[in-house]
Known about the structure:
- This protein is α+β, with helices and mostly antiparallel strands.
- The chain has a single domain, classed as Muramoyl-pentapeptide Carboxypeptidase, domain 2.
- Helix content is 31%, strand content 17%.
- The relative contact order is 0.15.
Amino acid sequence: xxxxxxxxxxxxxIDKTLKLTEHFSLxxxxxxxxxxxxxxxxxxxxxxNLRRLCGWLEALRTRKNQPAKLSTPLHxxxxxxxxxxxxxxxxxxxxxxxxxxxxxxxxxxxCAADIRCSGLEQALRYAAxxxxxxxxxxxxxDEIIIEHRVKTGNYWVHFAVRPNNNxxxxxxxxx
Length: 175
């Protein structure tokens, strides 16, 4: 077994409650329903990338919970302290293959998250907030992609930020 990683034994050393930021844990960002031999085990480099990503997600969470500065609210039901719901964060190569992810996915390096949205309006709002956050921070992101699965009607925002070489790619995709 010399030089071979035993993921079952290594997983007992991962603190699943490790807080990456105030509201996001390692467990949440590595959660998957896909069972693979590697148990979706992140490396230290992936954890570093997830911390950076979660810093942006914290800013998005704060922004979405600020009271609307409009005479007529755009929607109701937005309470203080509401969280963001992450459909997918880090994906190991095995998990990425199993879910049909592309070989160059930012999920593989812990640089991307898919944020669940209640509909197109919320997805557009999240994308606009992330663009504002980028401008305010003077930092670039890699991708903001509003995705819509036509068969189910589900919407999510794929957001990615890399350590460097961010492309500021923004688009809407119907799957």
